Amino acid sequence: MNEFKERLKDVENHFLQNDLDLGYRRLIDLILDLGELNFYQEIIHYSDLYYNESSSDELKKEKALEILTALKTVSPPEYKQEEVLISTTQVEKTYNKRKFRLHPITFDIKSREVVGLVGENGNGKTTLLRLICGELKPTDGEINYHFTKAKPYSYELRTKLVYVPQRIDVLYGSLLDNLQFTLTAYGINNKENILLANVMLARLGLWPYKDLQWKQLSSGYKMRFELAKTLLRRPEVLLLDEPLANLDILAQQIILEDLKYLSQSIRNPFGVILSSQQLYEVEKVSTEVLFLEQGKLKLQEDKEELNQNFTIIEIDVINDKEELLTALSNLNLIQLKFNGGSFIAYFDESVSINTIFIEIGKSSLQVKYIRDISKSSRRFFVN
Length: 383
Hints:
Layout: H1 3-16, H2 20-34, H3 37-50, H4 57-71, E1 84-95, E2 100-110, E3 114-118, H5 125-133, E4 140-145, H6 155-158, E5 161-164, H7 175-185, H8 190-203, H9 219-231, E6 237-241, H10 249-263, E7 271-275, H11 279-285, E8 288-293, E9 296-299, E10 310-317, H12 321-327, E11 333-338, E12 343-348, H13 353-362, E13 367-372
Protein name: ABC-2 type transport system ATP-binding protein
Keywords: ATP-binding, Nodulation, Nucleotide-binding, Transport
Family: Belongs to the ABC transporter superfamily.
């Protein structure tokens, strides 16, 4: 089946199952992929209804299904195939005065990929992002940009390779005015300009705030707006430095979901590299996770670093260590560490996570939290 029709079906199911918020965002994705002005107008009218406090969920669902019915009659957009966008080969950076070295790093990023960049502060995450975007020049190695023939460090390259730092520049005027200005700068004028600006505000959850000034927004909504402005430029690669830093937990999850869905665009897919301290949230949406420790790269699936001989769980219990050891005594427990609030238990790889859960379930342990970190980058943070 055509990819557009598959996504239509998924969005329809979201509304039929009363997942209205997700359905609404994914419906806008379909309309952005289609790129037809009459559907831009439809979703703008629907957004007024969606955010109207007097609108019932049943009415929201009914009107959304009407739009989906209309979308089923259009010619679907052509699906753009995945491609390698950037490849780095033994890229490194040395700061003599800071006595810090980013050791040789080699990896690729493709369109529709979200690459998570994790590690403690001061281990080279921002340095790597700045190397890729051209703000810094590598001491050695190569960075190849396959999506353009523009010269490295040129303005032409930066129009499609967008770096969003943690500290966002102050803007003036309303959100809508700023988005319209961005579109004008990239050659989108007249009716499409105002319609597309409104659609993007709706997509990033900014519809109720479109007439507000920048200074009236919270830090979290400023990041959402920066993403809206950036996505209107239709980047090939989006580099984000700690985009979750000022967001609450729910907002973090939504932003990451949005990045994953938006990068999967049928017509305009892009790659994302984002640095973050929110490890588990990033792992949920990432196709690959890169861990930096003292400037050295570890891959999430690195065979040498994967502790292949172990099944590893992180567990937090009300009980003391002796009680936990007793509960796990029937399993092939190799080591039990205390890691600042939780225990890290290492078992032989023959012990499955299901077996561990069953054994814990038979015990009298009062478990507050348990997680399998055998293949998670979390294992790199364990002392």
